[in-house]
């Protein structure tokens, strides 16, 4: 089946390159896209597209609109190459794909085959698209070998240099079906650029319910110490009563957390690991992970990655060699 695409937005260059290499055609390209691919076959300027691809409002992925069979052809190609892509269906003819951090980095590399592209290009574009374009057209065009150092410098200046003790960060907890849950904000206790880690304190808990997996009541005055490291497929919350009594720890299995100036974001992979104060360690919510696969949101390889990560973390915690869970006063910036 020949599939013709129209692609717009911050991922247009990378996705155009990707789909052309997959043998699909691209229609109605923008001026810059047509110029970048002027010597490449696969453009059908006048044909109506089968699938229209645009940025999600969040810029963390794309929205696809088109006939069901054509959408399935596009999605199968994405999943064959990007096992971490997370799919959500809005309607029979409308899909959305969330691009977790590894996929964004992969698209950076694809774009770099077309023209000089900063390391962390797509993540930085979400922060300041115009500035990234300007830097790539000027500084990077003259020194494409400097893409890694320049991208890292911008990431540090635009994100890490803004992380000060006490600064609040929003927490965007993305479900596999595309819903975004906004957890209570965390205040920065520690930020370590060298090992790409953050420690947050969250304290806006309201009594009346229970902590997931721990079977412990939430009380007024409770707080959590949350430790996050970029590139890890989990992060942990250690929960405490007002006076510092430990309630337990909960480790969320998720796509690697993305750091931004005012928030963090990741896709929750449903399965979790619970560490009780008496030392017991349990893996929970395996059924929710399986449901994510059955409903078409996750690839089989993504499910296996989540299961493996939960199993690995459980073993580390049981052997006392894993993340210990910070105490209430252990972090300093």
Short account of what is shown:
This protein has 333 residues and is an alpha+beta fold. It has helices spanning 12-21, 31-36, 68-81, 101-112, 121-142, 147-158, 286-294, 300-318, and strands at residues 4-7, 25-26, 51-55, 61-66, 86-91, 94-98, 168-174, 180-192, 197-202, 223-229, 234-240, 246-254, 258-260, 263-275, 281-284.
Describe the structure.
This protein is α+β, with helices and mostly antiparallel strands and 333 residues long. 31% of the residues lie in helices and 29% in strands. The protein has helices at 12-21, 31-36, 68-81, 101-112, 121-142, 147-158, 286-294, 300-318, and strands spanning 4-7, 25-26, 51-55, 61-66, 86-91, 94-98, 168-174, 180-192, 197-202, 223-229, 234-240, 246-254, 258-260, 263-275, 281-284. The strands form 2 sheets. The chain has a 7-stranded mixed β-barrel with strand order 7-8-9-10-11-12-14. A 6-stranded mixed β-sheet has the order 2-1-3-4-6-5, with helices on one face. A hairpin with a 4-residue loop joins strand 8 and strand 9. The chain is globular.
Keywords:
seven-stranded mixed beta barrel; alpha+beta; FomD barrel-like fold; 333 residues; 3 domains; 31% helix; single chain; six-stranded mixed beta sheet
């Amino acid at each position: 089946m020949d599939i013709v695409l129209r692609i717009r937005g911050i991922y247009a260059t990378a996705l155009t390159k990707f789909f052309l290499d997959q043998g699909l055609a691209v229609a109605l390209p923008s001026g810059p896209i047509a110029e970048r691919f002027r010597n490449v076959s696969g453009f059908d300027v006048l044909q109506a597209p089968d699938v229209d691809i645009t940025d999600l409002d969040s810029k963390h992925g794309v929205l696809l609109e088109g006939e069901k069979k054509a959408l399935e052809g596009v999605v199968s190609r994405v999943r064959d190459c990007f096992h971490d892509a997370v799919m959500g269906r809005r309607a029979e003819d409308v899909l959305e794909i969330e691009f977790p951090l590894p996929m964004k980095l992969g698209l950076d590399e694809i774009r770099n085959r077309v023209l000089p592209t900063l390391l962390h290009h797509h993540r930085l574009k979400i922060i300041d698209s115009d500035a990234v374009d300007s830097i790539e057209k000027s500084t990077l065009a003259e020194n494409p070998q400097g893409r890694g150092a320049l991208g890292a410098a911008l990431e540090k200046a635009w994100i890490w240099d803004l992380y000060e003790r006490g600064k609040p960060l929003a927490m965007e907890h993305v479900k596999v079906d595309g819903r975004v849950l906004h957890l209570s904000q965390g205040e920065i206790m520690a930020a370590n650029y060298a090992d790409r880690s953050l420690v947050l304190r969250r304290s806006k808990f309201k009594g009346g319910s229970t902590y997931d997996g721990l079977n412990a009541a939430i009380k007024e005055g409770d707080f959590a110490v949350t430790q996050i490291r970029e590139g890890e497929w989990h992060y942990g919350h250690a929960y405490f009563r007002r006076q510092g009594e430990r309630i337990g720890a909960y480790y969320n299995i998720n796509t690697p957390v993305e750091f931004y100036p005012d928030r963090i974001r990741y896709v929750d992979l449903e399965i979790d690991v619970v560490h009780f104060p008496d030392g017991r360690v349990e893996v929970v919510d395996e059924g929710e992970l399986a449901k994510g696969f059955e409903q078409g949101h996750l690839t089989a390889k993504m499910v296996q990655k989540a299961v493996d990560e939960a199993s690995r973390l459980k073993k580390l915690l049981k052997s006392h060699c894993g993340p210990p869970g910070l105490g209430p006063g252990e972090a300093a910036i």
